[in-house]
Amino acid sequence: MMNKRTPIQSVILYALVFALVIFCVFPFLQILSTSLKHPIDWGNPSLIPRVLHLDAYKELLGLMPVKEVDVPASIQRLLDNPALSAEKKQMLLAKFSSGSDVFPFGRYMLNTFVISFVTGICSTFLASLAAYAIARLRFPAQSLMANGVLFVYMVGGVLLMVPLYQMSVNVGLASSAGGTIFSLFLIYLIQTLPVAMYMLGNYFRTIPFSLEEAAMMDGCSRVEAFWRIIMPLSKPMLFTVFIYCFVIAWNEYLFASVFLKQYQDFQTLPLALQTLFTSKNAIWDRIMAASMLTLLPVVICFMLANKHLSGGLTDGGVKG
Amino acid sequence: MSSVILRNVNKSYGNLPIVKNLNLEVKDGEFVVLVGPSGCGKSTTLRMVAGLEDITQGDIQIGQRAINDLPPHKRNIAMVFQNYALYPHMSVRENIVFGLKKSGADAETIKQKLADVSEMLKLDDYLDRKPADLSGGQRQRVAMGRALARDADVYLFDEPLSNLDAKLRHHMRSEIARIQHQYNMTAIYVTHDQIEAMTLGDRVVVMRDGIVEQVGTPMDIYLQPTNTFVATFIGSPAMNLFEATIDGDDLVFDQYRIPASKIANVDLHDLGSHDTVLVGIRPDFFEDSALSSPSDNLFEFNDIQVDLVENLGFDKEIMFKLGGEDAKARLDLRSHVKRQEHISLSVDLNRVLLFDTSPQGMLINAGEV
């Protein structure tokens, strides 16, 4: 029987919960607040900006109007000279329109999205096959394999960073941008597979084996039973695992910082944010807006995962 | 439809034998029920036929096909599972036609079969529901429908009614019997419920510890059980067994002397080779002496003290002591015996069975049913 709380107990409980929530959410509020402040407002300790300033977001998302290039009159005269080739003119103009303060946020976001999405899809697919094998099939050294995979997860990334980079150099992958991204993708796959397998394996075990047996009696091979019964029934968990892998790859910094150092164009968001943080003139609203935009997909992912986690797809299939 | 033949089938897990040297032929269109206590190997036998368990040794044949090495999906067998095993993500309609579609049936056949099955099992109103939205009985009917929609060689039932309440179980039992006869299905049905075994089976296979104890029609099993295990397992309440010594031509226990010569199929010479025998009398074969019509072959147990009376409506079960053992008799409503009363019970000696006292307790007076 549950004890009913007194009003004082309730107040204390809610106050504690509220404090905990604020403690967790405060850094995010700070990011949001700063990203919306005008530079003159940066010193203001209040979380609420005096004026709503969306320029940082507009700039990052490429919504700012293109600046007219300010060219001195002498140079303008040179440019007006029809004898000068178009190529030369372009070179001259470039000297006056430095792109050094343009942060290609969209490009980084696309890089990150592509690698995270591919990692999520591949990891979920491979994990589902492996998890099924470990959960359902009997083969020699089965438990050794199941535990061995988890062992990979226990080894810290820092320990493997140098040897893995060395390996990718040795096999020639690190010598091209494509190869480097492929090695990074493989590393993300290895990083996410153990937990993905663990999550899916545990989920598969909750699906009664008799459903597969019924499918086999209905004319399905084992593989068909897997695709037609197990996979549709595991949708919520597959989605959750995908989100997990996606977010891990989305936020990964350590390996990206080593592998993508020399390939500026292919850098991912965590790496780019780091560059933004350490640049000489820290433009706080832009840094915070970039952080906010980086966070956004993660938050959306978790909200979606939460919705799908209610699960219960296998209800009613077998007598409980 | 096809026959099923199991030849010297063995199944063991490591060194633990589960099914021992099982031989059985299920004829085309026959309904065979495997019955036995938990762990007797009946479900394992069924699953070996289905292909869901490997056979350690022996052969299984469906029609002219040896199916030992065929995977389940190539055996053309339909099965109803104990826990229904409906596909939770599919509607009732999809569940029923799943196997048909898989077998490549054309749209018209699928439509026709679905209509037949849903009408037969009264599932018309539920076709678009998911299994989670159905009651236990409805789910059971869908599971039946899924199997029946298939044009399978053999239909297997693994305790399909054990999760239903008594009333529904009775109803579904009749339905299964009706459908099986209507479609002349070859069916193997596993149950631990002896009433299902008796009412459904053309033949009943009684199993214990992986061994077939007896195969026969329900009445064979009831009236001529080959040993004390079958005698006590089939029939409710269980058959009473009294140990009697042999004194000349009489079987003696307590103050009673039963003339062995009046018991059916007794070879007195053979009986002489035993010191003691077990006398088996089914509770149903006792009669209240006050109500029985006199006959030469009736034996009367006098002065029986009734310990307990359980009224079941038409019948009543009475408990008493006989030969130092607890015994039961089932009398009809004409009898008005009361607790602690002393009564006489009669039994037709043609119905009395004798078993030897070996551990197997084999039937001595076997004969025609």
Task: Put the structure in a nutshell.
Chain A has helices spanning 7-35, 55-60, 73-80, 86-96, 105-136, 142-154, 157-170, 177-206, 209-217, 222-233, 235-251, 254-259, 269-278, 284-308. Chain A is mainly α and 320 residues long.
Describe the protein.
Chain A: One of its GO terms (biological process) is transmembrane transport. Chain A: Belongs to the binding-protein-dependent transport system permease family. MalFG subfamily. Chain A: Keywords: Cell membrane, Membrane, Transmembrane, Transmembrane helix, Transport. The complex is a heterodimer of chains A (320) and B (369). The model of chain A has no long low-confidence stretch (mean pLDDT 86). Chain A folds into two domains: 7-53, no CATH class; 105-308, Orthogonal Bundle (MetI-like fold), CATH 1.10.3720.10. Chain A is 69% helix and 0% strand. With 320 residues, chain A is mainly alpha-helical. By secondary structure, chain B is of the alpha+beta class. Chain B has two domains: 4-226, P-loop containing nucleotide triphosphate hydrolases (Rossmann fold, 3-Layer(aba) Sandwich); 237-355, Nucleic acid-binding proteins (OB fold (Dihydrolipoamide Acetyltransferase, E2P)). Helix content of chain B is 24%, strand content 34%. Chain B contains nine helices and 20 strands. In chain B, strands 6-7-8-3-9-10 form a six-stranded mixed beta sheet, sandwiched between helices. In chain B, strands 13-12-11-14-20 form a five-stranded antiparallel beta sheet. In chain B, a hairpin with a 2-residue loop joins strand 9 and strand 10. In chain B, helix 2 packs across helix 3 and helix 2 (92-102) runs parallel beside helix 4.
